[in-house]
Structures are given as C-alpha cells and as structure tokens.
Design brief:
The complex is a heterodimer of chains A (167) and B (87).
Chain A lengths: L1 H22 L9 H10 L2 H4 L8 H10 L20 H14 L22 H15 L5 H4 L5 H11 L5
Helix pairs in contact in A: 1-2, 5-6, 5-8
Chain B lengths: L11 H22 L4 H17 L6 H26 L1
Helix pairs in contact in B: 1-2, 1-3
Classes of the chains: A mainly alpha (167), B mainly alpha (87).
C-alpha cells in the first residue's frame, strides 16, 4: 500500500512537473525534476489525495515555495517523460511481450505470423495477448478494434496509429 | 440460390453470443487487473482462463447463455468486492 502511494505520487510528480514547467511563463527558472519527485514522495498524503487535478495551482505554488530554485538564470528545462516511440521500438516491444507469453513458441514467432492460423491460438488467447499489449503500452484498446488485431504486424500498425508515430 | 457461406460459419445468434463471451472474458481480465495482490491476480487469471477454456466447446445455446450469466455474476461479485476493499 505504501509502495503504491509512492509509485503513484512519483508518477504524479513526473506528470505534474511536465505540466508545471510548461505552464510557467518564466524561462529563467530551472526546476530539478529529481528533487521535486523526491519531495513529492516524501510529502504526506495531502498530495496523494488530489487525483488528476492538473489545474492544481495551489500545488504549483506550494512546490515553488518549497523548492529551492538552485540556479536561477539558466535557460534549461528538464522535463520528465518517456522516451519517444519509433516503429522499431514498438515492434521490439510487441515481439518481446509475445515471446513472454507461454502459449507461443518463440522460434515460430514472426512479425507476420497470424495468431490463429500460424500460431494455433484461439480467440481467448488473442484477448489475453491484446490485454498484455494494453499493459505494456499503457493505453486501453476498445473491444471492437481489439478483436481485429490478428498478427503482430497489425498490432504495431494500430499502436503507431494511436500514438502518432510516423516514419 | 444456394448459400455461399463456408460450412463452419456461425449463425448470427451464435456470432453475437461468441462476441458476448469474449466481452465478458475481457471485462473479467480488466477487473482482475485492479486486484491489489500479484499472487491473487495470477490465481484469478488462471481460474478465469481454466473456466473459459473448459467450456470452450459447448454448443448448446441455452447452456452457453447460462454460462455467460454465471460469468457476469462472478464478474459483478468481484467488482463489488474490489469496491469494498478500496473504501
């Protein structure tokens, strides 16, 4: 439970930091993401009980008040975000998740192998696979579109489509 | 004019039922994700998988409908317990 709160507040810290730094009109401030994240993790339950209220002006002012802005005058912004997605990385992650799935033979797995025709899986397995993809990439795939994804290639296309990855 | 459908094609009712079963399975997996303990999650996932796979080859529409209702009941129970656990 405590670990969940810390992880939650760390995630919140990363996201709110992104929001804060963007909405700050002053380019001369340098907010160090690490300090803020630690501070958020240490801060008591007050910060945790604000679910996704990004318009948390009070939070921003509290952080500005708390954080010792180390060196003012440096035009350096440090955002917290995930590494950018490319088609290659999406494909690697999809294949990695598929190899971890116990019903798939890793040697037979190709980008174009059809789940039902080539790999001998059934629709229940396909549901599980799509759920695993949702977990891996962190966004929900609705039912109607999920049932059409029958090869790793299609999954990669779909994710690239949803995440606006062009190459 | 003879029907051009392959012999293994499902009728509309069967097709809809199949979609419903897959929908229940998906909702079940999504609900199981919210269970706090990892070991419990694994146990519940394996249980759900077993149950669905065991009855995979049922053909009687009424039996299938009963099983869908049962699964939905289990799902609602699980959701209620999760709500209680969270509060």
């Amino acid at each position: 439970m405590i670990k969940n709160i810390q992880m939650f507040s760390y995630n919140m810290a990363a996201r709110v930091l992104q929001q804060c730094v963007r909405s700050l009109g002053r380019p001369s401030l340098r907010l160090c993401p690490v300090n803020l994240a630690l501070r958020a993790a240490v801060a008591p339950a007050v910060t945790v009980h604000r679910p996704f209220s990004f318009a948390a002006d009070s939070r921003r002012t509290r952080w500005l008040g708390q954080s010792r802005i180390s060196s003012v005058g440096l035009l350096c912004r440090q955002y917290g975000d995930l590494p950018p997605l490319t088609l290659e990385t999406i494909k690697d992650r999809v294949l990695y998740v598929l190899k971890l799935y116990d019903k798939i033979n890793p040697e037979k797995l190709q980008v174009t192998s059809h789940f039902m025709k080539d790999l001998g899986l059934d629709s229940l397995d396909q549901v599980e696979i799509i759920m695993a993809m949702e977990d891996e990439f962190g966004f929900e795939i609705p039912d109607a579109e999920a049932e059409k994804l029958m090869t790793p290639e299609e999954i990669v296309q779909y994710i690239a489509d949803k995440k606006d990855v062009y190459e | 004019m003879g029907s051009r459908l392959p012999p293994a094609a499902l009728s509309l009712k069967q097709f809809l039922q199949r979609q419903k079963v897959l929908g229940v399975y998906r909702s079940m997996l999504r609900t199981i994700r919210q269970v706090p303990d990892e070991a419990d999650r694994k146990y519940l996932r394996d249980w759900a998988r077993e149950e669905f796979k065991r009855n995979k080859n049922a053909t009687n529409q009424d039996a299938i409908r009963m099983m869908i209702t049962q699964a939905t009941n289990h799902l609602e129970e699980l959701q209620k317990s999760l709500l209680l656990a969270k509060s």
